């Protein structure tokens, strides 16, 4: 146990001995000074001249401020508090913790430096040391996860520039996901800042499936183009591929260069924020009409909704047409977007990493690997435990549609053509062509209510393979393997001797911003608890 010293005990290092001795002195409430020390042993004496080293110091000599409570000792005592990167442990909390556990009064400066020492112990050193460890870590990542793709770009002077990582398990699993990739970027919050680039998609159960991450200097044309070209090299390109993003200009130019054959769609919520800002409107009807028009499946429904929208907001028609109707509407898209109209999965992935983004580069990459490793294992278990032919989410959706279909009337025209009466409207279903005039069947590749009203028993055969349990299991068949402790790394000399330096950054005066600036037109809201619906505690 840390802090226990007994006769004939052998310590692994002098630092371990000094740490145990310092912690014991705080527990036993005595102080010592070093009388003699070298690399193999150390001689200490109690600071009180009459003490016989049996802790017989006078009571009035034992104070709550002890010389052994240095910053590095405090760091050793509290480092277990920081195993979770999202743990908030302020200097004031360090002072309270040391007072409660050891009866020691710390100054604020010692608590601050002690917290920094704890960070260094658990986060693979200082930010500068973390960059130097990165090449060795990436080598071990590829050794433990064969087939993973890693690219590290440096500038003159061996300064970090770009990083790209795609795990082998993600590369294997993408073939079983819908070909819609959502890309986004968010700022890192460490000493050397930078930008995190992400590429994610949906699995069969509507969960986030991480494809690749990248780190660059800023969100500019060069960085986005470099990242998306690496994505293309790893995951390929086909005419059915869709890239989803916000309206950042650098993303637009990078997609045109890296994915010339792919369709580039725009997140409808980002465009909504731009629309609100452009016309300085907070009208709820504007939002409702816009979302309904964007999600409309057929052109007739879109024209009705867009007419209402443009009548309420003069000038909106010209603005939305200049963006490109095919880029934000489901009805005009030249290819299948399935049911994916936003970049919410990218925003959610960034939100999961909000605390991790404060870590030094190597510790940050390791936390992302741990997150993906945990997700793959949990979802592999869930997929293998599924007993239905479709994924859990899709099975639930089909059940709701089946219940709705039972209320509809079906009029048969011939062997393949049917007229389905849904309330006051009727829809034509052609089972020879696998079409319905509502167009949900064609675009989502799932049978709509009207198709289910016609077909009762073979409904699963009408679903895309991307929604099946088989594809769900295959998506997570790959395993993201752990990486051993740094003391067990075996790195060859060309990599182990490479000195990677951190990038140049411009230091800005003042305290660093923790919360991001809202996008144009974005309204910040306080999240609600999913259980009690309350605020300010989630």
DSSP strand content? 5-15%
Q: Which structural category fits the helices and strands?
A: alpha+beta
State the distance separating the first and last CA atoms. Answer: 36 Å
Low-confidence stretches: none
For the biggest β-sheet, the strand order reads 3-4-7-6-5-8-9
Please state the overall shape, judged from the principal axes of the Cα atoms.
elongated
Mean pLDDT: 86
Query: Helix count, per DSSP?
Result: 20
- What is the CA-based Rg, rounded? 30 Å
Main sheet properties: 7 strands, mixed
Brief summary of the model shown:
This protein has 538 residues and is an alpha+beta fold.
Could you explain how this protein is built, in words?
The protein has 538 residues and is α+β, with helices and mostly antiparallel strands. It is built from 20 helices and 13 strands. It has helices at 14-28, 71-78, 91-102, 108-122, 127-144, 168-173, 221-235, 249-258, 268-279, 284-295, 299-312, 316-323, 325-328, 344-352, 361-384, 392-405, 440-444, 449-454, 469-475, 493-496; strands spanning 32-37, 42-46, 149-155, 159-166, 180-187, 195-202, 208-216, 242-245, 263-266, 409-412, 417-422, 425-430, 435-436. Strands 3-4-7-6-5-8-9 form a seven-stranded mixed β-sheet, with helices on both faces. Strands 10-11-12-13 form a four-stranded antiparallel β-sheet. Helix 8 links the parallel strand 8 and strand 9. Helix 2 packs across helix 4 (108-122), helix 3 (91-102) packs across helix 4 and helix 10 packs antiparallel against helix 11 (299-312). The protein starts with 13 loop residues before the first helix and ends in a 42-residue tail after the last helix. 34% of the residues are buried. The mean pLDDT is 86.
């Amino acid at each position: 146990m840390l802090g226990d010293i007994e006769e004939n005990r052998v310590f692994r290092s002098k630092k371990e001995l000094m740490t145990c001795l310092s912690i014991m002195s705080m527990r036993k409430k005595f102080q010592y000074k070093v009388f003699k020390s070298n690399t193999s042993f150390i001689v200490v004496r109690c600071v009180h001249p009459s003490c016989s080293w049996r802790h017989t110091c006078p009571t009035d000599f034992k104070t709550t401020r002890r010389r052994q409570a240095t910053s590095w000792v405090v760091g050793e005592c509290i480092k277990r508090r920081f195993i979770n990167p999202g743990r908030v442990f302020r200097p004031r909390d360090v002072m309270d913790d040391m007072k409660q556990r050891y009866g020691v009064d710390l100054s604020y400066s010692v608590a601050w430096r002690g917290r920094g020492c704890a960070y260094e112990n658990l986060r693979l050193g200082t930010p500068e040391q973390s960059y130097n460890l990165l090449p060795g870590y990436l080598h071990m990542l590829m050794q433990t996860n064969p087939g993973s793709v890693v690219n590290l770009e440096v500038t003159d002077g061996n300064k970090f520039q770009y990083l790209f990582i795609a795990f082998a398990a993600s590369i294997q699993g993408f073939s079983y996901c819908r070909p819609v990739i959502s890309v986004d970027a968010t700022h890192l919050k460490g000493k050397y800042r930078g930008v995190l680039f992400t590429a994610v998609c949906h699995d069969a159960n509507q969960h986030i499936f991480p494809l690749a991450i990248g780190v660059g200097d800023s969100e500019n044309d060069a960085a986005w183009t470099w990242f998306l070209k690496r994505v293309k090299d790893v995951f390929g390109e086909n005419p059915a591929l869709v890239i989803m993003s916000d309206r950042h200009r650098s993303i637009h130019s990078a997609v045109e260069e890296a994915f010339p054959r792919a369709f580039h769609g725009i997140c409808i919520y980002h465009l909504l924020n731009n629309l609100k800002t452009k016309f300085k409107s907070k009208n709820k009807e504007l939002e409702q009409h816009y979302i309904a028009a964007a999600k409309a499946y057929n052109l007739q429904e879109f024209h009705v909704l867009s007419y209402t929208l443009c009548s309420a907001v003069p000038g909106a028609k010209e603005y939305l047409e200049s963006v490109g109707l095919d880029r934000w509407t489901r009805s005009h898209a030249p290819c299948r977007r399935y049911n994916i109209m936003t970049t919410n999965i990218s925003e959610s992935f960034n939100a999961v990493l909000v605390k991790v983004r404060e870590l030094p580069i190597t510790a940050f990459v390791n936390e992302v690997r741990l997150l993906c490793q945990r997700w793959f294992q949990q979802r592999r278990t869930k997929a293998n435990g599924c007993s239905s032919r479709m994924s859990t989410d899709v099975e639930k959706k089909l059940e709701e549609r089946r219940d709705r279909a039972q209320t509809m009337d079906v009029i048969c025209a011939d062997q393949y053509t049917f007229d389905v009466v849904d309330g006051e409207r009727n829809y034509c279903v052609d089972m020879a062509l696998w079409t319905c005039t509502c167009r949900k069947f064609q675009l989502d590749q799932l049978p709509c209510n009207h198709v289910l009203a016609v077909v009762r028993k073979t409904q699963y055969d009408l679903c895309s393979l991307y929604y099946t349990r088989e594809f769900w299991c295959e998506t997570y068949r790959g395993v993201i393997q752990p990486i051993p402790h740094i003391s067990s790394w075996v790195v060859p000399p060309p990599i182990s001797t490479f000195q990677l330096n951190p990038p140049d950054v411009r230091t800005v005066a003042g305290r660093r911003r923790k919360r991001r600036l809202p996008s144009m037109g974005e309204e910040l809201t306080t999240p609600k608890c999913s259980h009690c619906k309350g605020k300010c505690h989630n």
